[in-house]
Amino acid sequence: MNFGDILKKSFLEGYASASLSVRSIVTCMVVTLLLSAYIFILYRAINRQSFYNKNFNISLPALAIITASIILTIQSSIIISLGMVGALSIVRFRTAIKDPMDLVFLFWSISVGIICGAGFAIIAVIASLILTCGILLADWLPIAKAPQILLVNADSFENEEDIMDIVQKYCSLHKVQARNLTKDHLDMAVEVRVKDEAALVMELMKLKAVVSASLIAHDGEVTF
Fold first, then answer.
1. What values do phi and psi take at 79, rounded to 5?
2. How many other C-beta atoms lie within 10 A of the C-beta of residue 158?
3. Beta strand residue intervals within 100-164, DSSP E
4. Which DSSP letter does residue 159 get?
5. d(CA 45, CA 140)
6. What is residue 7's predicted lDDT score, i.e. its pLDDT?
7. Closest-CA residue to 159 (of 193, 178, 184, 194)
């Protein structure tokens, strides 16, 4: 036996086919399904977006199961694993993930599939419990109240000082974000943090020059 035969034998032994029983495959899939269902329920419970994307949430369990299936498959043969790498390398994902929490749940689902497929389901369970505690704790902590946008339309630009006096009276935070002036019209957008919203709007509407006043909530960054 020459050096080439020894190297070839060692290489093949290092990547010998792993015998997977039906029981181990079913166990892996059941554990992955339970954990992915848990991720599905948790995402639905803590979702704070204006529009809940059900299709994205359904894709989380599907991704976990598909990933676990791929990991189980590539354990059986190096040829299959190389084929999987080549096939998956042509996949391109062009959908932008706008919410960072969606990205967290996406990687969480894929990680559960990889870990369960590799046979370390207990790690997936422990990691999921720790991650759940961290997410719920961070979501529960009161960091700051998100400001609102006050839109004021007036038919005279000379009343801006009166408008801002009322805003300062009711708001702990105020910042003019936009001001549009014409010869006989004033449009203002003011970022405010106010407790008595109705009183603010009502007092602004008492000004003769004010045509309309609106408070709009938004899901943007919190101003400290």
1. -65, -45
2. 9
3. 148-154
4. G
5. 13
6. 40
7. 184
| CB neighbours of residue 54 within 10 Å | 9
Q: Which residue has the tokens 């203002």?
A: 188
Whether the full predicted model's pTM is greater than 0.85, yes or no, is: no
Q: Give the containing element (helix H, strand E) for 191.
A: strand 186-194
In contact, 159 and 186? CB cutoff 8 Å: yes
Which tens digits make up the pLDDT trace of 172-206? 788 888 888 877 788 888 888 887 888 888 888 88
Tell me whether residue 113 is exposed, middle or buried, using C-beta atoms within 10 angstroms of its C-beta: 0 to 12, 13 to 18, 19 or more: buried
Triad 198, 203, 207: Cα angle to 5°: 145
Q: What is the distance of C-alpha 209 from the center of its chain?
A: 43
Task: Give the integer Cα–Cα distance in Å for 202 and 68.
Answer: 59
Q: Which two tokens stand for residue 98?
A: 């706008």
